[in-house]
Specification:
By secondary structure, the protein is mostly helical. 67% of the residues lie in helices and 0% in strands.
Length: 110
C-alpha cells in the first residue's frame, strides 16, 4: 500500500514535469521531495538480496542454470518463505489482481 502511494506520487510528479518539459527544467527536486519515502524500499531490497543469494545457493548444487531453471528455483525459494507466502496470499485477494497468481504477472511482457 505504501509502495503504491509513493509510486503514484512519483509518476504524477514526473508526468506533470514531462507535459511541460523544456531543457531548463530538472527532476532532482521531485526526488528530493519524495526521497524520505524511498526508505520503504530498503526492506524490500534486503529481501530480494536474500532471495537472490538463496536461489544461487540452491542452483549451485544443480546442473547449469537456464532461465527456466532460475525461474523455478526463484519460485521455490520464495514459496518456502512464510512471510512471502503471506504477502502473496494477501496480494492475490486484491481486486486489481483479478484472481491471478504470481506466475501470471512474471510472464507479462515488460
Amino acid at each position: 500500500e505504501l509502495l503504491l502511494g509513493v509510486n503514484k506520487e512519483l509518476f504524477k510528479a514526473m508526468e506533470l514535469r514531462a507535459a511541460s518539459w523544456d531543457f531548463e527544467q530538472s527532476i532532482g527536486d521531485v526526488f528530493l521531495m519524495l526521497g524520505p519515502h524511498f526508505k520503504i524500499y530498503n526492506p524490500i531490497a534486503e529481501i530480494m538480496k536474500q532471495r537472490w543469494y538463496l536461489t544461487r545457493l540452491h542452483l549451485s548444487s544443480a546442473q547449469p542454470s537456464s532461465p527456466a531453471r532460475l525461474f523455478q528455483a526463484t519460485l521455490h525459494v520464495c514459496r518456502t518463505n512464510p512471510q512471502f507466502v503471506q504477502f502473496l496470499e494477501e496480494a492475490e485477494k486484491r481486486p486489481e489482481v483479478a484472481n491471478q497468481d504470481l506466475t501470471s504477472f512474471l510472464i507479462l511482457p515488460g
